[in-house]
Amino acid sequence: MPRVVVVLGLVSLITDVSTEMVTAVLPMFATLALGLTPLGYGLLDGLYQGATVLMRLLGGFLADRLRRPKLMAGAGYALGAAAKLMLLPVAGAGALSAAVAVDRAGKGLRTAPRDLLIATAGPRDRLGRSFGVHRALDATGALLGPVVAFGLLALAPGDFDMVFVVSFCAAVLGVLLFVHRVPEHRPPERPAPEHRVPEHRALKHRALEHPAPEHRARPVSLRDVAALLRIDGFRRLFCAAAVLSAATIGDGLLYLVLLRNESVTTRWFPLLFVCTSLVYLALAVPLGRASDRYGRNRVLTAGYGLLLCAYLTAILVDGTAGAMLCLVFLGAYYAATDGVLPAAAAPLLPAELTATGISVVQAAVAGGRALGAVAFGAVWTAAEGDAAVWTFAAALTAALLVAVPMITRSRDHRTEAR
Question: Which of 75, 211, 279, 385 is least enclosed by beta carbons within 10 angstroms?
Answer without folding.
Answer: 211
